[in-house]
Amino acid sequence: MKEEKEQDVPWICDQCKEKLVLRKVKVSYLGGNFEVDLMKCPKCSNVFIGEELATGKMLEVEKGLEDK
Ligand SMILES: [Zn+2]
């Protein structure tokens, strides 16, 4: 129930009140460059990194590098 409610609310840029779009963004992490899908404001190009990405995906990236 809670998840359905969250999906109904689109991500909005705090500065321009624009709806964020999913874009491939190049990020630098631990000295490497990666392309990840991030929510980006089409107006000011502000990139928003969700909590899920910061605590989940990025950690996986870090692990992958350490394994190598
Ligand atoms: Zn914006």
What share of residues are in beta strands? 25-35%
Question: Which molecules other than protein and nucleic acid are bound?
Answer: zinc ion
CATH topology: Ubiquitin-like (UB roll)
State the shape: elongated
For the largest beta-sheet, the strand count, sense and barrel status come to: 3 strands, antiparallel
Report the order of strands and helices.
HEEEH
Q: Percent of residues in helical segments? A: 25-40%
The CATH architecture can be given as Roll
- Please report the number of helical segments: 2
Overall pLDDT metric: 75
Strand order of the biggest β-sheet: 1-2-3
Rg, please? Answer: 14 Å
Would you identify the regions where 5 or more consecutive residues have pLDDT less than 50? Answer: none
SSE inventory with pairings:
Blueprint: H1 2-8, E1 21-29, E2 32-40, E3 47-48, H2 51-67
Antiparallel strand pairs: 1-2, 2-3
Bound molecules: zinc ion.
Zinc ion (ZN) binds at residues 13, 15-16, 18, 41, 43-44, 46.
Keywords: DNA-binding
Protein name: DNA-binding protein
Structure write-up:
With 68 residues, the chain is an alpha+beta fold. The chain has a single domain, classed as Ubiquitin-like (UB roll) (Roll). Helices cover 35% and strands 29% of the residues. It has two helices and three strands. It has a three-stranded antiparallel sheet, with no helix packed on it. It starts with a helix and ends with a helix. The relative contact order is 0.17. Zinc ion binds next to loops. Keywords: DNA-binding. This is DNA-binding protein. It comes from Anoxybacterium hadale.
